[in-house]
Amino acid sequence: MAADDDVESSSEEIYVFFKDRPEWKDVVPVQQDDGPHAVVRIAYSERFQDVYDYFRAVLKSNEMSERAFELTTEATELNPANYTVWHYRRELLKALNKDLAAELEYISEVIQDHPKNYQVWHHRRVLVEWMNNADKELDFTSLILRLDAKNYHAWSHRQWVIQTFNFWDGELEFVDNLLDEDLRNNSAWNQRYFVISNTTEFDDATLAHEVTYTKGFIQKAPNNESSWNYLKGILSTKDKMYDFPGLEEFCQMMYNKNIKSPYLLAFMIDLCEDKLESAESDAATLTKATELCNLLAETIDPIRRKYWNYFKRKLTMRFGQEQTG
Amino acid sequence: MAAPRCVENFAGLESQKLVDDGISSLSSQEQESVEESVGQKFSLFHQWAEREGEDFKWPPLNKEKHLHYLHKGLHHLPEGYECLDASRPWICYWILHSLYLLGEKIPEEQSSRIAQFIGKCQCPDGGFAGSPNQQAHLAPTYAAVLTLCTLGTEEAYRIINRETLRSFLSSMRSSTGAFTMHKGGEIDVRGAYCAVVAARLTNVYQPEMFEGTAEWIASCQSYEGGFAGQCGMEAHGGYTFCSIAALVLLGHERLCDMQALLRWLSQRQMRFEGGFQGRTNKLVDGCYSFWQAGAFPVVHGILSKQHDPALDTSSWMFNEDALQEYILVCCQNLNGGLLDKPGKPRDYYHTCYCLSGLSLAQHFLTDNMNVKYVMGGEGNELQMTHPIFNIGLQSAEDALQFFSKLPLPSSR
User: Fold this and answer.
1) Does the beta carbon of A78 lie under 8 angstroms from any beta carbon of chain B?
2) What's B269's DSSP letter?
3) Which of A126, A129, A182, B344 has its CA 20 to 30 A from that of A165?
4) Whole-model pTM?
5) Average pLDDT, whole number, for chain A?
6) What are the pLDDT digits (tens) for A291-306?
7) Would residue B285 show up in a list of annotated catalytic residues for this protein?
8) Is the per-residue pLDDT at B401 higher than 80?
9) CA B406, B408, B412: angle at the middle one, nearest 5?
10) Interface contact B281-A126, CB threshold 8 A
11) pLDDT digits (tens, 9 = 90+) for B174-192
């Protein structure tokens, strides 16, 4: 720690404010104009104020220079969420014909420090667009996802890259690995849906494969909502889901084993509803569905009591008449 | 009034914790650790309530402390807020809306100062920036309009240059109907919501400004039922609120699969914690007390308009007691301000959205019903918030009325 402190203080010593730099003598700094009675006034550090006083000055004069570019580096470091600085930096990149590969390296560093920031990811995306080259993107996003496998920005960037540059190959294996590490990673399940719906789509063979795959995960962990949501999602691409071979038996078998996962019960209700909609059912289907709703509302999933009671009423109103009439 | 679950049936509540099926993974470990810290809070409160007896079944909302924290922030903020230097109209909105919810009136002079500061953030080409001398951006534009409408004075309303606002909003629409957040900026569902709220509240809305927008938003509904930031991405609480609220403001709620949305939405309330998570298998966070729970009144309004006979017309379709329990027991900082979850620091964002969620959990309000479900003493009651704009009900009405009298600015 002592050594760190030394480095810290010595770097403080050598830091020179822009107002004290001879090469900036010609620029008149522009103070932030908060008006006479500022509110939500932030206690900016002296350095923050200094850097932004000069940033406002170059922005105002629209100075396209190396020094302005370096200034934006300092400004984004102090506040990576300042979209105005990033926008201006992109103008500078173009005007000065800067090396975009170097900029990509730079933004990689910044993103690693601030992985949940809209502006830094957008900057990266623009660079990739300009270079029309996404060779580093899958590795980079996978690096970020190793730190946080659910980082929304990283997934969003990855999806854009895959879609734009046709990088579909290997993505399902990537998802497989993530699900092996954490079968509750819902972002990975979502990516699985994204890949398939944009490639093979859920044709019969793919659907059969996916149902088997998902059932394997469900058997391992019946209380994992992600796999159930995926199962329902892929089956909803068909007109009828209840007649998918073996599905009802699969659920019933788990239910008989006394597995009372709320997601299992909810899925069984969905199968019943689907059956009722196709009018190939009898009164027993409605009874079964309403009993499952009761079980969820009263015992298994009481936090959602109102929802399950609503669902029960809805089923009864839609299908109750036909049964009695 | 029922007692909180942690007082009434502590043992029963324990049974609602995560079942990991004997397979531990990072997600389940993180969930278990949050359940432990929330469980400690519940347990402490349970013991306290036992000692205090009948009169103290619900924890008080520490209004005085929260007010102090809010007033301080309205005036000045510590250096740590430098990262929000490009979001200052947001800070104004979070604080002012929180103050409103707590029943605090803003003195005239202060109101005028805030309005003038927001005016300093307005850009020559329209829209508002995150601070003076920055570029216009849809998010601070949304926050600025809400701030001015919350102030509700003629001076505040008159700050908004409707002609340039209209042209700024129009210029942010891309050919797909989606909105980019700022010139050369990113595209996601927030943009459409921020734009349509600003347009509707200030009466600059015209259908051609939003051509294709509703269809684009609808394409963001994921297979799980919630909405994502962009088509193909994972369903997420913040984007879901933005999407469904925007669809209502655009008059195209029929493009949404309501039953799929409702299923996903109701699954987001955590069975042990009582608060909401943002995505499937993620952790509870106080801010989703608004982004997720806040979608229930919107959904209720749509189903009611569609004459859904199964709809319960006496309360929202989530557990409002459990949400109030989570906010009151787990999200209050002892020194004022609210937060994400136990162990996290307070901030103005979470203060605003925890209180907004608490308010709508307390008030079931429709065109012909107004029922209170305020847990705890009368002092816990908050003012009512508009379910789509998330500003005071009266503020929304006043603003809509004021701007409706002004002519629609002509397109340039």
Assistant:
1) yes
2) B
3) A182
4) 0.96
5) 93
6) 999 999 999 999 999 9
7) yes
8) yes
9) 135
10) no
11) 999 999 999 999 999 999 9
Q: What are phi and psi for residue B277, nearest 5 degrees? A: -100, 165
Mutation to test the B interface, candidates A303, A308, A311, most B Cβ within 10 Å: A303
pLDDT digits (tens, 9 = 90+) for B8-20: 888 889 999 999 9
Q: Is the ipTM of this complex over 0.90?
A: yes
Closest to A236 (Cβ–Cβ): which among B117, B223, B311? B223
A294-310 core/surface letters (b: 16 or more CB in 10 A; e: else) = ebbbeebbbbbbbbbbb
**Catalytic status, residue A116:** yes
Question: Residue A244: which of A289, A209, A220 has the closest Cα?
Answer: A209
Output phi, psi for B370, to 5 deg.
-150, 95
Are β-strands B76-77 and A41-42 bridged in parallel, bridged antiparallel, or unpaired? parallel
DSSP B365: E
Cα A303 to chain centroid distance, Å, stands at 27
Listed in order, strand segments (DSSP E) in chain A are: 41-42
Q: Across the interface, do A83 and B222 touch by the CB < 8 Å criterion?
A: no
Centroid of chain to Cα B248: 16
For the residues of B105-126, what is the DSSP string, one character each? PPPHHHHHHHHHHHHHHB-TTS
Cα B196 off chain centre by: 16
Q: How far apart are CA A262 and CA A268, in angstroms?
A: 10
Give the torsion sign (CA, B3, B297, B31, B223): positive
Contact A310 B312 (CB under 8 A): yes
Can you read off the two tokens belonging to residue A253?
């078998």
Phi first, then psi: give them for residue A303, nearest 5 degrees.
-60, -30
Amino acid identity, residue B322? A
Length of chain A: 325
**Can you tell me which residue has the tokens 């009582």?**
B274
